[in-house]
Amino acid sequence: MRLLRSSSLRFFALVFAVQLVLAGSLLLFVRYVIADELERSSQALAEALRDDFVADWREEGTAGLRKLIPSRLASLGAHDAAVLFDDPDGNHLAGNIADWPPPVAFRSGWQVYTLYRMGRATPERIGIVTTSLPDGSHLLVGHVIERDLHIRRLTGEALVAALSLTIPLALLGAVVATRVVTSRVERIAETARAVAQGELSRRVPVEDETGDAFAELAGAINLMLGRIEALVSELRMVTDSLAHDLRSPLTRLRATVERAMRETGDEAALGALERVSAEAETLLAMLTTALEISRAEAGIGRDRLIDTDLGRMIEDLVEMYGPLAEERGFSLQAEGSARAPVHRELLGQAIANLVDNAMKYGRPGGAIGLTVTAEEGAVAIRVEDDGPGIPADRREEALRRFGRLDPARSVSGAGLGLSLAAAVARLHGGTITLGDRAPGLAVTLRLPA
């Protein structure tokens, strides 16, 4: 069903139908022109012969015309002409048709009938014209159109054969046109996907400078991408500079607080300083994580992907976080094995953030599962807990930077854990998915293998 709704298939069907309709229309027009010309020619011959007989009657009279008709038929040949000359009483005077056909009027224009000619065993299709002479006699002059009908039949058979040949040619033309358009659209889509993954320097290739629609579209998109790259670069410079500038005073603040803690003996002051130190540490962690997200979204670190045993990586994380999890009443479990090219440090921190979130929001005494699964062309890293989870309509909000949902405001944190995991997934060209474990949350990082 998806293929039937695709734009490529609709474009293919449109091109095929247009070619078929044009070819069919042209062939039908040619057949009509040939048939019309044959009929016009036969009618013109019959009318010209009638006019000659009428002129002969005026000059020679009835007796003269009666003598002229046999000689004229002999000169015309026995294959085409049909003539009947009757007196006013309907008696046959001359010609190669024995009797006046009952349905034929004595004065009529071009008509086609099936008639017998004298000396012929079978009827023939004959186009005739009739006239009444001033003395009351009647003249019927016709032209045999059997050969014309045969040519029409041959033309129809040729039309069917031509249409049969047109169908594969139209299919071929539709395939070629669709491939050309699809390939150019795919190049634009490939550039858009690369930009979405952080390669802001990518541009749509312009194959020619002819100024066609695709060249204009590529130029407009490239201008837009250039502007986006400039704006993002400026924003990144500002945020990075701000983060770096803030880290120094925060570091000095923490050092000052730690020195004050060593020097004070007041328990109340010591408790306040400890809270200030914790907040300073949280701010430093937030700035560090924000910088890492910015770098990941900018594609920094993509050249440091190395083939890694992900099963061994999650086992190391379980070993590292196991004591802390047990202290908080959780059990950590690792399962599965797969290999993929990854940025070990960033991926490790992303998974650690997911484990930390599971310990913050999971049900105490529950289990936190880390699994690695090999899929077709990808690996899936899944972190599960049995906490309250995240409603489906709030998951996009949870993936944004500093995106903390209302129930989580009472829990310490900056709302950057899922954002970092999403940025790391995009850095690897992968995706992140938030699912429902019923109960609990299942976060899946799916990375190319």
Automatic annotation (TrEMBL):
Its EC number is 2.7.13.3. Transmembrane segments: none annotated. Residues 179-233 form the HAMP domain. Pfam families: HAMP, HATPase_c, HisKA. Keywords: Kinase, Membrane, Phosphoprotein, Transferase, Transmembrane, Transmembrane helix, Two-component regulatory system. Residues 241-449 form the Histidine kinase domain. The keyword Transmembrane applies. GO terms for molecular function: kinase activity. It catalyses: ATP + protein L-histidine = ADP + protein N-phospho-L-histidine. It is an enzyme of class 2 (transferase). The keyword Phosphoprotein applies. This is histidine kinase. It comes from Sphingomonas morindae.
